[in-house]
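Project standup — Tuesday

K.O.: blocked on the structure for the chain from last sprint. Re-posting the sequence here as requested.
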Amino acid sequence: MPRRKTSIKTRRADVKKHSRNLKIKQQLKKSVKKFLTLLSAKNAAEAKDILKSVFSQLDKAVKKNVIHSGTANRKKSRLAKRLGRGT
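H.V.: unblocked you, prediction finished:
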């Protein structure tokens, strides 16, 4: 455990940031999973709508420095590719 006041404050801030980032990542994983289940159920119209929200969530996560921009771009590309193939 930290001993200095500044270290204690930094630790407190890190815990808060970690919980916020974790919540964003979990929400992102849920929406990607929802998209994939719709896609596997051959429900392309609804999957397309969900894909828009997934893209938005990925962009917001990049903006908040939760994930790297390259990671988001790669995920968007792969999800769009899957929608195009229909699998």
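K.O.: great, moving the ticket to review. The longest helix spans residues 5-40. The chain has a mean pLDDT of 94.
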